[in-house]
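name: query_chain
kind: protein
chains: 1
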Amino acid sequence: MNYRRLGRAAIAAAIVLWLGGAALGETLITDAKISEVKDHGFVLAIGSEMVPVEDGYGTHYWAGRAKSNRAAFQVGEDVTVRVKTDAAPAELREMSDRPTWKWLDRIRKDTIPIVVKDVQAKTLTASLDDGSTFEYRWTQKTEVTLRGARVTPTELKPGQRLFAKARTLPSLETFLAKASDDAGLIVKKATKAKRTRAKKLPGTGGLVGNVLGPANAFSMFDIMSDNIKLHITFTPRTAFKLDGGKVTARDVAPGQEAHIAYSRDRFGRIIASKVELFSHH
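structure:
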């Protein structure tokens, strides 16, 4: 394995995919199972770890393809979560049942057909092609075109059919970036950008870096590679070696050089299949 094949641009692309955008901070998006419901949070089974997370006023809940609340989630339920890992305790930013997360992910990332239901001063409510309803945030930066002409969102009428492209804000609200009655105005640009990003980072590869800290409760550790901090996720199947001898994740320590064979999962995380560590004597 040639661990030095990835350049700075590829590593930067990995960070964007891992964090879901730098503005969202140290964020983990992962599948989990609810192990315990607490007064101010949950205990989540993530891989082989039991991880306590704290929720609050700003936590977003989704269930049944709609906004929801913490009461909708019970022990034993399979969920997808967004967790701020650089907080103590870890902060639960978003939780959803898994089918709803796929629905929400499509709205936030893809260009989708919508039918306008209602437009207010800051929101646009739309019917989607699966029969669900979604409320977008919009501002003066929202680009709306009808028959090739730029219009404001307030000029849209109920029943108009459009194609919508959204963006996730740091607040986790879904911002309507573009809407048009011509899908080509949106899809061509989005496809070109997607292909460019895909070329920068292969689905599998290798990295070399220096370990910044020990493995944490999220089955993660950080490395610095080409002056960029990367989050490395490991699983019970990840093979660890230290100076040629078999070890475990508990032996990961700051200052070691790490050679990592990885693949990316559906969330864009860097999942290590093999970690070779080297001590500095």
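note: Helices lie at 8-19, 98-109, 184-200.
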